[in-house]
């Protein structure tokens, strides 16, 4: 079998999702949660302004001096901790994570696995192929979602950009995932729904890519990716499985 490890993007590849962090609801619910747990702001608007300022500083500090600033992924969890401090309280990482999850749930209007995702992962694992998540995401949002969907039991390894401090399409991100799996680019496959981050990023280190053009792919992404070894319309897991297993 050609591939021993398949790397998967998450959102738009395994999970169908829509979030809006600029809507009023998530900030109102976060304000209520913080107020009930000791951090006080005049209203949700003041809370959002404080978050935006703290987050901008967090990003600036993380990207300072980086050769490719856009490839750096700072962890947002400390921002939630600093929100407590700015609101006159202190928060453990556990409490900050609860606040982050309140915000994430309130900002999400659509969420669920694409049909057949777990079954597809199961078939690959039954064939002896390692399944690895390789996602640009914030762990404080994504790890609870992985558990809710059951993906934590369907994946052999989880690699999240905020925990690595780097994001796709950084070549170092892909190489890090391969190092964790003790494998080489020619034995790995990347499956994702974004041409630049997933397919071109993987190709930069010699990893083949399967491109899934889903409804939440970038608007400027093509329906067919020329650099991919296979392009599929939507989350066509049947065709993906057949390709990987050589059927």
From TrEMBL:
<dbReference type="InterPro" id="IPR036412">
    <property type="entry name" value="HAD-like_sf"/>
</dbReference>
<dbReference type="InterPro" id="IPR023214">
    <property type="entry name" value="HAD_sf"/>
</dbReference>
<keyword id="KW-0378">Hydrolase</keyword>
<dbReference type="InterPro" id="IPR006439">
    <property type="entry name" value="HAD-SF_hydro_IA"/>
</dbReference>
<keyword id="KW-0460">Magnesium</keyword>
<keyword id="KW-0479">Metal-binding</keyword>
<dbReference type="GO" id="GO:0044281">
    <property type="term" value="P:small molecule metabolic process"/>
</dbReference>
<protein>
    <submittedName>
        <fullName>Haloacid dehalogenase-like hydrolase</fullName>
    </submittedName>
</protein>
<dbReference type="GO" id="GO:0016791">
    <property type="term" value="F:phosphatase activity"/>
</dbReference>
<dbReference type="InterPro" id="IPR051400">
    <property type="entry name" value="HAD-like_hydrolase"/>
</dbReference>
<dbReference type="Pfam" id="PF00702">
    <property type="entry name" value="Hydrolase"/>
</dbReference>
<dbReference type="GO" id="GO:0046872">
    <property type="term" value="F:metal ion binding"/>
</dbReference>
